[in-house]
Design brief:
Order of helices and strands: EHEHEHEEEHEHEHEHH
Number of helices: 8
Strand order of the largest sheet: 1-9-8-2-7-3-4
CATH topology: Glycerol-3-phosphate (1)-acyltransferase
Helix content: 25-40%
Mean pLDDT: 86
Distance between the termini: 8 Å
Number of domains: 1
Length: about 230
């Protein structure tokens, strides 16, 4: 895994931090972040080598996940105990588009988690690229005023199946870039302005969507083959 920005993790307070990230698999993304965070806190610089950092991990790390995802099978149920804040999607359930009100208990649980530690959320609410950022994340930011740290990941979608539990292709380099906390005027910025700021921060704004030439994709494939032997 290629990591950038681990020094930012070491300088964060123990509570009240919200990590926002693009999303590529259900579980591998979060597991990787858990390792990177703990490695960074233990003095590793942009690497997760020597897993001795797992002897005394930071355990007050939570992640927001859809309730239906965390109830599909035994393993997701077990992973839910590792710190999932389960929420009901307001726009989609069981593969169908819906519309329902936000459950107040969901936002309250996120508030409790922020008061206790760090929270990871995927504001698009899906593993599909360039889907709109949900306004719920912006509301949480305005209401609870956390330190907001953007993360951009890549390579997980090609490496793992959608759930992130099975290796799909070996030799793919995953990357994780941790960015400086966002500067947000919690009182005066609108929900729409915060949403747009999030989209650019996690590199999912529609203006960044572009067609990648075949030559570039082929070059990327060759780089992946090379990395298989170098890493």
């Amino acid at each position: 895994m290629h990591i950038e920005g681990s020094e930012i993790i070491k300088n964060l307070p123990d509570t009240g931090v919200l990590f926002i990230s693009n999303h590529q698999t259900y579980f591998a993304d979060v597991v990787a972040m858990f390792h990177v965070f703990n490695a960074s806190l233990s003095g590793r610089e942009d690497n997760i080598k020597n897993v001795g950092y797992m002897w005394h991990p930071k355990l007050n790390i939570y992640y927001v996940a859809a309730s239906e995802t965390m109830h599909e099978g035994i393993l997701p149920r077990i992973l839910a105990y590792a710190g999932a804040i389960t929420v009901e999607r307001t726009w989609r359930a069981k593969g169908k588009d819906i519309k329902r009100e936000v459950n107040p208990n969901d936002t309250e649980n996120i508030k409790i988690a922020l008061n206790d530690g760090w929270v990871i959320t995927f504001p698009q609410g899906t593993t599909r690229s360039f889907k709109p950022v949900r306004k719920g994340t912006a509301h949480i930011i305005k209401q609870h005023k956390p330190i907001v740290v953007p993360i951009v990941i890549d390579g997980f979608r090609r490496s793992f199946d959608r759930k992130g539990l099975r290796i799909k292709k070996k030799g793919i380099l995953q990357s994780m870039v941790i960015k400086e906390p966002l500067v947000i005027d919690y009182d005066n910025e609108s929900i729409e302005e915060i949403v747009e700021k999030i989209e650019f921060a996690i590199e999912q704004h529609p203006s960044l969507l572009k067609v990648i030439p075949v030559e570039v994709l082929q070059e990327q494939e060759e780089l992946d083959k090379k990395r298989k032997w170098e890493y």
